[in-house]
Structure formats: structure tokens, C-alpha cells
Amino acid sequence: MKVVVCVTGASGAIYAKRLLEVLKEKNVETFLIISNSAKKIIEHELKIKCNDFIKLADKYYENDDFFSPLASGSNKFDAAIVIPCSMKTLSSIANGYSSNLIVRVCDIALKEKRKLILMPREMPFNAIHLENMLKLAKLGVVIMPPIPAFYNEPKTIDDLVNFVVGRVLDILGIENDLFKRWGE
Question: In this entry, which stretches build a coiled coil (predicted)?
Fold first, then answer.
């Protein structure tokens, strides 16, 4: 399986980091794209250098690299995920405005009927946000705000993050035991 992980300028880089760690453990090939804003957020929120974050992926492409193989629909990948997804990126995807590689990859996922997961990290949502999400959901995009559950009695931030990442893996069809499931 090949997964494109896109990180945009919204709070929540911890979700992307954990997803990349688990995908590496599961031997899933990963391609990473990070927006310029996300690079700053990664360093601020995670207290690590962006280069260390990049090392979690198999391949990395700059967000302005339209010569990347990922910029072509003939390049095969199984799924793309934007984690976290800023409202700017969500709006660009919903309106077909492929001004950077992240949005281009999402456009390709849509046109080639590949799995696309967006994890919008904003609240509260306004009507424009909701209309854009509905527009994309009608096209088959999985809209998945990173909202953890509490029935599993989380004790740490890692428990909350693992729940969200575990649910992403479920959508990707990747077996995992990152969290306690309902009824277990």
C-alpha cells in the first residue's frame, strides 16, 4: 500500500507524526508533503526539527514541487490523507484550486477515484466550512475531524491521539490495536 500524507497549517501535527510512525511500523510506503505553515507548527507544537519529522516518511516532496511524481494522475498511490487539514486547504480542494502539490494530490485522488481523507482541524465550523465539507463528502471524500472518543477511558494525550490515528487506519483498511474498541 502507498499512502500520501499531507500536513497543512492547522494545529494537530501530533496526529500526522503518530500516523507516520504507525505506517512505518506496518511497512506501508509513505510519501510526505508539508506546507510552509505546517513546518513552523511542527517545530512549535512537537518541539522537533522539521527534518526529523520528514525522516518518518519514505519519500518527501516540497509543496511547490509540481515536478514530483505525485503531481501526475499516472503515478499510483492508494490513498491520500490531509492530517491536519486547514480550512484554506479544504476550500482549495473543494473548489479545484490546485495551487500547490498538496491540493494537486487531493485533486488526483478525486479524479482517479482513490481514497481521500481530510481531517479538518478548526472549530467552530462556519457555514462556508460546512458547505465545502458537504461538497467533498458528496464526492466520496472521508471528512474526519480528529475527535477522540472517551468510552475507552483515555488516560493520556497519547491515548487520545492513538484513538484518532487508529480510526484513520480503520478507514485505510489497516489492522491495528491502537485503542480499546467499544464492547472490548
Answer: none
Give residue limits of the domains in the chain: 2-172
Is 97 annotated as belonging to a binding site? no
35 among the known binding-site residues? yes
Question: What are the pLDDT digits (tens) for 12-36?
Answer: 999 999 999 999 999 999 999 999 9
CATH of domain 2-172: 3.40.50.1950
Q: Is position 121 annotated in a ligand binding site? A: yes
- Is 109 labelled a binding residue? no
Annotated ligand binding at 9? The verdict is yes
Q: Closest by alpha carbon to 15, among 158, 142, 156, 141?
A: 158
Give, in degrees to the nearest 5, the angle at Cα 41 between 65 and 97.
Answer: 40
